[in-house]
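Retry 2 of 3 after timeout on previous attempt. Resubmitting structure tokens to design endpoint.
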């Protein structure tokens, strides 16, 4: 039935103001207004159709992406959209493209690492898209180990140029998005060599293709690296390979904010830390955390709506079968993901604040919070992307068989999302960075250096080693201080245990390698504590709207108690709670699920996603799933003809042969 809201009865159950929650989710009423307007603009324009991506061959798929990117820019100019509106519009187009790297990494790399003069020269060109750029760091042989990059950039004082060269096969740049077929320029990372001395990895702006005929410039070999995971999905992106054969660029194309090379070939470091060369990665990791909440909320929205539509078993006395969302097992899998989506939203908001704060301090030559910013962006990028990837797959299973159809939207979402666990830093490698930060913090405790920021709790480590939870009944777990106390004690004890074990090694680096798995677990516990504590902080704010704050308190408790239950072994073995307290947490969790149940559809409506953006029959706003699934099946190209191609050629003779054999 077209036009009927099959989920209206669910929407009527909501006990809170969904419109007020939409504002909380978007971040402000202004952000909601812009995202609402931009998402509708994209959804109502047939040029942005995306429902046939899984069916297209690579060339057609890619050409379509280029068409959409050019059309999006045309609309942005015609409608005179602001930077904020333009970026929202691009995100609702919802198709990985070279523009992501141009706006997301090339421009930020120049902004973060260029001098004032370089900004003046390059930014206008990039912002008007007169040049298109990408971020060429990773090589065939090295991705995680940035210091192991092999590309050489040698200064030639005779001509005042750098000579860029790929000395080995493994030094070929490999992976950069947008590089394969489209970028005219790249920020290339390579080892700077002056006067025979290697100064380590630095960034350089390099032109790759002619602005006249788009052909690669002399000495440059460039192409696409081939099909990636999943049909459609990330194959709209031209991840590329690039080799240099003694390519020359002017000296002023080295990004010189961190260090520079003089006309005479002298290497001069400025007063900013060397690690700022990695600044673009910190920026992108921060954006990835908010994006995780977006990707997870999409999957959760689909699975929640479908779980309310889907019925299995339990028909009694003429009543229909039960909605699968009423099964406690479904709730125990789905609602923690719903809570995680909200948790990641808020920790993403906080991380954005932290990043902005660090940037302001850097302007004033205050570098003190850089290690904290690196550890938080690395750790939270790792935690949220791993949870989101697993969460999208769980949502597929929550939708049963129909979740496996491309028309559920979930396979494509998964295929596009999973590389997030690898790109911008492998998730394990990043957790090891957090672990280093934790071990360093602990080692400095004795020196009187007071830990600040997210490691401030380490300053109370002695007290945390002794603390015992005072929870006596299930409701006591609703108390934020009970939850924080348990998470802090667990994180502190896991880190301290690692530090103690490390101290047994005469060579600390050897110890770090040997204990790396324990260190990763300690880092994870620390990052979960950050998410929990930032959710709790959010709830200290004034949050208007009937029932909104109460429901967020429920979600916050679910996030925390779900992880307490999942990692019960940690909490018990470190002795910060008893097994009785563990089971009380589980009792409380069940009751919290019941409180979410009537509000579940309202909570996913608050994401304010259009059907176009969700691109899922199971997640349709009106819940009209079955007729649309049935209709969709007939659109498959296999159903264009009753008898498929290949039948007459292969199957018919085979059938005939088998029949003949049977008659003999
Ligand atoms: C249908 C849906 C459609 C959706 C549409 C939209 C989707 C698209 C969305 C979005 C587009 C995005 C598209 C994808 C983009 C991907 C791009 C890339 O992947 S670019 C490559 C990234 N590469 C890495 O991340 C390498 C990872 N490796 C590293 O970062 C480093 O090498 C690391 C961290 C492993 C460090 O290695 P060391 O230990 O050798 O580091 P040392 O260089 O020696 O540094 C030592 C000191 O520096 C600090 N440090 C390291 N990194 C730092 C940093 N970044 N900032 C500050 N300090 C840092 C350390 O803490 C350490 O500090 P102390 O000495 O202990 O105090
Ligand atoms: C879709 C996609 C887009 C990308 N886009 C870009 C781009 O635009 N620009 C760009 O420059 N790069 C890009 N990359 C490359 C990406 O940044 C790297 O793949 C990433 O940093 C991981 O590095 P790696 O591939 O070398 O993995 P590896 O480091 O080789 O990882 C392999 C395994 O080794 C483990 N491992 C590695 N080091 C350690 C360690 N020290 N301790 C314990 N375990 C370890 C890892 O956990 C992993 O399990 C992209 C990658 C993908 C998949």
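Retry 2 succeeded. Sequence:
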């Amino acid at each position: 039935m077209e036009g009927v809201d099959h989920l209206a009865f669910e929407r009527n159950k909501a006990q809170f103001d969904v419109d007020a929650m939409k504002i909380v989710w978007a971040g402000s009423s202004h952000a909601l207004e812009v995202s609402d307007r931009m998402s509708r603009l994209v959804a109502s324009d047939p040029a942005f159709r995306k429902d046939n991506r899984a069916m297209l061959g690579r060339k057609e798929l890619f050409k379509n992406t280029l068409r959409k990117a050019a059309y999006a820019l045309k609309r942005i100019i015609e409608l005179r959209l602001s930077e904020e509106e333009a970026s929202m519009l691009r995100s609702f187009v919802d198709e990985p493209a070279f523009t992501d790297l141009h706006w997301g990494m090339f421009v930020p790399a120049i902004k973060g690492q260029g001098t004032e003069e370089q900004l003046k020269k390059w930014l206008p060109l990039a912002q008007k898209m007169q040049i298109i750029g990408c971020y060429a760091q990773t090589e065939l042989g090295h991705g995680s180990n940035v210091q192991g990059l092999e590309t050489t950039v040698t200064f030639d004082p005779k001509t005042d140029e750098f000579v860029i060269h790929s000395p080995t096969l493994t030094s070929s740049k490999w992976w950069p998005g947008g590089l394969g077929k489209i970028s005219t320029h790249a920020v290339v990372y390579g080892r700077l060599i002056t006067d025979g001395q290697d100064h380590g990895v630095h960034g350089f702006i390099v032109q790759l293709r002619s602005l006249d005929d788009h052909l690669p410039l002399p000495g440059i070999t460039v192409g696409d690296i081939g099909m990636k995971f999943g049909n459609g999905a990330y194959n709209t992106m031209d991840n590329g390979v690039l080799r240099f054969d003694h390519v020359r660029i002017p000296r002023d194309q080295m990004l010189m904010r961190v260090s520079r090379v003089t006309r005479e070939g002298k290497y001069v470091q400025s007063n900013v830390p060397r690690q700022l060369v990695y600044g673009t990665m910190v920026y992108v990791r921060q954006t990835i955390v908010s994006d995780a909440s977006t990707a997870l909320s999409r999957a959760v929205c689909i699975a929640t709506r479908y779980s309310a539509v889907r019925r299995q078993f339990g028909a009694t006395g003429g009543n229909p079968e039960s909605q699968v969302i009423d099964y406690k097992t479904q709730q125990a899998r789905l609602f923690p993901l719903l809570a995680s989506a909200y948790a990641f939203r808020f920790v993403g908001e906080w991380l954005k604040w932290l990043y902005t704060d660090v940037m302001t301090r850097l302007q004033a030559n205050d570098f003190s919070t850089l290690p904290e910013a690196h550890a938080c962006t690395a750790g939270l990028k790792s935690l949220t992307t791993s949870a989101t990837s697993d969460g999208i797959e769980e949502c597929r299973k929550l939708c049963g068989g129909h979740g496996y159809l491309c028309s559920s939207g979930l396979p494509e979402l998964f295929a596009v999302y999973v590389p997030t666990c690898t790109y911008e830093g492998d998730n394990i490698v990043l957790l090891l960075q957090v672990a280093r930060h934790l071990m360093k913090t602990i080692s400095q405790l004795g020196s009187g250096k007071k830990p600040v920021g997210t490691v401030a709790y380490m300053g109370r480590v002695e007290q945390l080693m002794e603390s015992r939870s005072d929870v006596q009944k299930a409701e006591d777990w609703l108390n934020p201080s009970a939850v924080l106390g348990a998470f802090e004690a667990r994180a502190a004890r896991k880190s301290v245990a690692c530090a103690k074990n490390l101290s047994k090694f005469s060579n600390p680096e050897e110890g770090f390698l040997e204990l790396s798995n324990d260190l990763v677990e300690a880092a994870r516990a620390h990052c979960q504590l950050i998410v929990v504590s930032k959710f709790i902080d959010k709830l200290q704010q004034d949050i208007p709207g009937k029932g909104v704050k109460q429901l967020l308190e429920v979600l916050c408790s679910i996030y925390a108690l779900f992880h307490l239950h999942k990692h019960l072994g940690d909490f018990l073995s470190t002795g910060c709670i008893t097994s009785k307290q563990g089971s009380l947490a589980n009792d409380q969790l069940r009751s919290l699920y019941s409180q979410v149940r009537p509000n579940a559809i309202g909570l996913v409506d608050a994401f304010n996603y259009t059907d176009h953006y969700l691109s899922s029959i199971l997640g349709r706003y009106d819940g009209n799933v079955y007729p649309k699934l049935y209709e969709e099946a007939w659109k498959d190209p296999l159903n264009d003809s009753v008898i498929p191609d290949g039948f007459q050629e292969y199957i018919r003779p085979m059938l005939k042969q088998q029949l003949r054999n049977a008659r003999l």
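Attempt log closed. The first helix runs from residue 8 to 11.
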